[in-house]
Design goal:
With 147 residues, the protein is of the alpha+beta class. The chain has 2 helices and 8 strands.
Length: 147
Amino acid sequence: MDLVEIEPTRYAVKSGSCGHHEIGQLLGQLFNEVAQGVGDTPVGVPVAIYTAWNETTCDILAGFSVPDGTTVEGLITFDMEGLTAAHTTHNGPYQNMMATWNQLWADFSAAGMQAGGPPWEEYVVGMQETSDPSQLVTDIYIPLAKL
């Protein structure tokens, strides 16, 4: 785990809810819908922001970073303020990502940190870049509460 400074970022997203076992399917659907909605607007890597999480289900905002000031009809604009976040990188198949999340949360808690907003994933190398799951790269973030 390392601490990183995140610049203010605007995202064009869609929201959805699903069971944990359906996250991949929902993200694929939402990313496709957002990609169609933004059209020729330059976008960053895909992002999934987990706005709620319980034992069996979660609420997600999924989409892409877009230039400041961008609004897209039919999509939600989510502005993330500049912040400090705990960060780690998961390399490999998405099916194994929960272990990486669990280790990040354990390190985060052991350091006495408190979350200051929804955690998120950035798909640095995703299924659109490689068909080999061992080559996937996902950055995982937990924002720190401001003191």
